[in-house]
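Because showing beats explaining, we let one protein speak, sequence and backbone structure tokens together, and leave readers to judge.
___
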Amino acid sequence: TKVGSIWEMTESFKIGEVVKPKSPISLADGIKKVFNNYQEYKLGVAEYRKAANWTKVAAEHLKLFKKCLR
């Protein structure tokens, strides 16, 4: 569902489906869509892992901190 920021990553990286809240039919449709196209979603998960790994995130924060200190 569109709660918090996880849905943005879901859409950006194509790692799942955003569904309507409190809708069992929407949830079931989202699950079916993911299972029917699982290989595509696996590629999105791999891309997300590259972008969101802790080493890369830490390096980005360090770069920002250094920039602020200048």
Observations:
- The chain has a mean pLDDT of 93.
- The radius of gyration is 16 Å.
- The first helix runs from residue 6 to 13.
